[in-house]
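[Solved] Which block belongs to which protein?

Original post:
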Amino acid sequence: MKKLEITKIERSSDLTVALERADVLWGSEQNTPEGDELERLVELIEAYESQHYPINSAAGLKDTDR
């Protein structure tokens, strides 16, 4: 399995590549090169998505739900 060197995700096209690679690596054993790569990709994907697609945790809640 060829390792990709994704060090940051700056645009949606980078995100697409990272998600496709994560899909290939999904299910990899922890503490292996593939598992480590998957872990790093997930961190990068989460960072990009939290910056570009923030989720307001209170969104959609009624005052009585809080």
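(Second protein starts here: sequence line, then its structure tokens.)
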Amino acid sequence: MKGDPTLSFYLNKILPTPVEDVSYEKIIEFKRKRNDNLIEFRKMISGFESKLSGASSTSELKALWSVLKKSLQKKQMIWLQSLTIQRLSMH
């Protein structure tokens, strides 16, 4: 699983990335505020890796990938809504 280019590409598309002019202080503040989300995300990926290692067929791998992709999309929507609400409350 480690180094899977498909998963890396997908995660790079959905994970928030700061623009170049964001200060380190803001990035650290963001990480502190989102620590619970980060822990939840790591647990999700770790569980996925465990399931992958137990897969015995290509069809099982595809099914696992589909479940992970749907879970990540759902989480992405929740996180984006949360960020939008946070931005609105800051103005």
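Accepted answer:
You had them paired correctly. Confirming on the second one: The mean pLDDT is 77.
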